Each structure stands twice: as structure tokens, then as C-alpha cells.
């Protein structure tokens, strides 16, 4: 009987330690991100060794944000266009969803994982984007 109780406690601990808390992803969304790899719906993967643009994500509050494409330069600053995409954040079915709406299109991205170094999202075409935190080039 003692073995059954031990197994039950162990199983409960494993269940709760493996359960994801999507709200914890929100604290890691902000910042500069570059694509590391993309896995398409058919399973093919493309690795990115170099990115000429990066994504900047800024949260305005807990439910809205802005995403901009930036082009890093050798001076340590960024070139950017005036355009940006705003998004709404919704926690749905244990997932963080980012809803975009522009004059040209509407789409949703689901955050699969986020920590201080990686961001993983899936888009409406079932392409999975793995981002890594952008680290500026140091030419000194």
C-alpha cells in the first residue's frame, strides 16, 4: 500500500511540473528576436545562419502589443520603416494567441514556448518559427 501512495505522489508531482503555464510566456515576449529555424507543415526545416532583419516585439499592456521589422547596422542601431503590426493577446485553451489585423490581412500566431532565450510560434499555415534572442554584432 505504501508503494501505491508513493507512486500516486510521484505521478501527481510529474503531472504538475510538466503542465505548462502559458501566461508565464508573456514576460518573455518583449524584445529583439531573430529567426533561428522554420519547420513547415510537411516537416521540412530551414535553418537561418544569417538574418538581415529582426523582429522587435513590444507589449503596450497585458493584452496588446506591437511588432516591427528592424534592420541592424554596424553602428549598433537599427533602420526601420514606419510600419508596424499591432496585435491583441488572448489566453485561450492553455495557449497564448496573438491576433493581428492589418488593412491587408488578419491572422493568428500561437506561442508554443517562450523563455529569455527562445520564442517558438506557429502561424495559420502550421509553420513553426523558432526565434532566438538577438545579440548585436560586436566588431570591436
What's a concise summary of this model?
By secondary structure, this protein is of the alpha+beta class. 15% of the residues lie in helices and 46% in strands.
Keyword list:
8-stranded antiparallel barrel, Lipocalin-like domain-containing protein, 10 strands, Lipocalin, 140 residues, alpha+beta, 46% strand
The count of strands amounts to 10
**Cα shape:** globular
Strand order of the largest sheet: 1-3-4-6-7-8-9-10
CATH architecture: Beta Barrel
Count of alpha and pi helical runs = 2
CATH topology: Lipocalin
CATH class label: Mainly Beta
Quick check: average pLDDT? 85
Overall number of domains: 1
Q: What structural class do you assign from the helix and strand content?
A: alpha+beta
Please state the CA-atom Rg, rounded to the nearest Å.
19 Å
- β-strand amount: over 45%
- Biggest beta sheet attributes: 8 strands, antiparallel, barrel
Percent of residues in helices comes to: 10-25%
Low-confidence stretches: 4-8, 10-19
Name the assembly state.
single chain
Q: Distance N terminus to C terminus?
A: 66 Å
Encode the helix/strand succession as letters. Answer: HHEEEEEEEEEE
What does this structure look like?
With 140 residues, this protein is α+β, with helices and mostly antiparallel strands. The protein has one domain: Lipocalin (Beta Barrel), CATH 2.40.128.280. The protein has helices at 2-18, 26-29; strands at 31-39, 45-47, 54-59, 64-72, 78-80, 85-92, 95-101, 106-114, 118-122, 128-133. Strands 1-3-4-6-7-8-9-10 form an 8-stranded antiparallel β-barrel. Strand 8 (106-114) and strand 9 form a beta hairpin. The protein is globular. This is Lipocalin-like domain-containing protein.
Amino acid at each position: 500500500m505504501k508503494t501505491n501512495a508513493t507512486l500516486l505522489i510521484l505521478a501527481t508531482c510529474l503531472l504538475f511540473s510538466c503542465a505548462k503555464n502559458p501566461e508565464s510566456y508573456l514576460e518573455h515576449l518583449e524584445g529583439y528576436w531573430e529567426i533561428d529555424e522554420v519547420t513547415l507543415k510537411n516537416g521540412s526545416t530551414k535553418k537561418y545562419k544569417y538574418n538581415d532583419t529582426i523582429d522587435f516585439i513590444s507589449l503596450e499592456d497585458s493584452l496588446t502589443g506591437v511588432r516591427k521589422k528592424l534592420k541592424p547596422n554596424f553602428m549598433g542601431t537599427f533602420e526601420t520603416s514606419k510600419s508596424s503590426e499591432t496585435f491583441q493577446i488572448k489566453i485561450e485553451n492553455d495557449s497564448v494567441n496573438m491576433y493581428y489585423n492589418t488593412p491587408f490581412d488578419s491572422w493568428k500566431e500561437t506561442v508554443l514556448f517562450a523563455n529569455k532565450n527562445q520564442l517558438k510560434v506557429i502561424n495559420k499555415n502550421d509553420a513553426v518559427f523558432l526565434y532566438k534572442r538577438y545579440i548585436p554584432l560586436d566588431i570591436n
